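Quick one before lunch.
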Amino acid sequence: MIGQIPNPNEPTPNLADYSAMQAAFSWEAACAEWVGSPNGGLNIAFEAVDRWVIAGRGEAIALRWLGKNGERQDLSYAELARLSDRFANSLERLGIAPGERVCILAGRIPELYITALGVLKVGAVFCPLFSAFGPEPIRVRLAKSRARVLITTTLLYQRKVRKQRGELPDLQYVLLTDSREAELGLYSFHALLEAESDHRPPPRTQPEDWALLHFTSGTTGAPKGAIHVHQAVIAHQLTGRWVLDLRPGDIYWCTADPGWVTGVSYGIIAPLANGATLVVDEAEFDARRWYAILERERVNIWYTAPTAIRMLMKVGAKTVREHDLSALRLVASVGEPLNPEGVIWGLATLGRPFHDTWWQTETGAIMIANYRALDIRPGSMGRPLPGIEAAIVRRRSDDRVDRLEPGEEGELALRTGWPSMFRGYLDDEERYQRCFADGWYLSGDLATCDADGYFWFVGRNDDVIKTAGHLIGPFEVENILMEHPAVVEAGMIGKPDEFAGQIIKVFVALKPGYEPSDALRKELLGFARTRLGPAVAPRELEFLPDLPKTRSGKIMRRLLRARELGVPLGDLSTLEGEYPENSGDE
Ligand code: 6R9
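Model of the 6R9 complex:
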């Protein structure tokens, strides 16, 4: 256990008395008291930027962008408010109606942040697509979103969208962030922006209006589009304040890409809604660069992920000591299990223990966390946010749930009813309903809870995996491999990896007439990488004569996992996260 050592030079934690807040807090009251925008609406973008301008903090830096080649750009709250007003006006001119989805496919560039806020202001639904996805995951998500507008760069458009545009009948406008030219179906983002006024009346959206669409994966079927509403901002703001201890003027860096939920909820909304300065680094992970950013920008609050922490640990403590990281007040982690060594390494080398936090695309905001004011139990995800009731349960066959005793392993469940809770999977009501039983949201994660109310992650109860913090489902990966003429069956698993947590490994059975060979292995891996993109591409491939299947013909990935880990097949109960009676998301 790591106790919190009071430091007279540091402010009292925003959440100073966890137990008192846990007893007193209610979402109903918090939502009822929320002031909202001047015309009576509630809008994420208004809460994130315009509110600060009205409050007289317009000159404060909202976004500090660090380009990969050393460029720097600061945008104040007032500038971000004006630019996003302009973009909202551009979208209105294109005829984008409230509730419509607007997609963006881009790296971490300033236009992404302007887009997110502009889309929210016009009442449309912001849908980010990860730029390391290949053409196929992008096509699937664009098609599913039915977006008429896509914001992207020339390079990403040419590499990942152009060839498939014919298969995307809804896609009318592609706005390029780095082009001044307009040609058939392609427009210049900046030219559109410049043609508009930077004034708009405050947004009119209501708390339950759709705001965000995040695609996520399950075991079966195509990716699911989790929908969030404007009211989610109340949870973003509050978790930012309580868990990340954010306050106006803080310098804050979230290393997650906005192609994933963390990069939006905590890479855009929560820090701005708390008046902080966002540091955005366009470049990919590089230990020296990261330490230099923490030092030079005097980052106070840092939210990152276990994969990055493991890579920093590998580089060693000497590199850390070359930097002055004394501005850091809180370091936190999310997305994958954070091993106790990571927490302790943070304390020993950064002078701050990593605070683990747990949540999901579906929960929209942090649900379980280690707080500044509470002791940390290294290896534990922490305790539920005030207002959140979490429990370890087992779903019964009659769809009731039984709550389990402290120490017993079961599914992590949350009592429904917080503002950032997802409101549906786009066009998939049945899958949405399956996430709930008896008034609980069932997370699909297996965990335990100790007698003091700390939660401990065990594993998933389905076949999705986390690789370098990214959630990947087997469906897309296996489907692509099966499109290759040599492949008859494919099964994906997560293979444990020292740094990425897990890497994607596929087992493949070949059609008659094809023989396993190194050349074919390389060809299949290349085939998958070209279509799926580096983030989703399998790293290893093994040939099998055939894949283990259930009587109904489903591939038994847990047997593939058992095989990989060398666990005796007869003793599946020892496999992490395996519940023979629990079919998860199937
Ligand atoms: C925010 C985000 C959700 C899944 C979740 C769980 C895993 C997240 C974790 C963690 C262990 C933590 N996960 N936080 N596992 N410890 N602190 O990551 O959303 O991409 O939807 O993934 O990530 O398995 O169910 P998402």
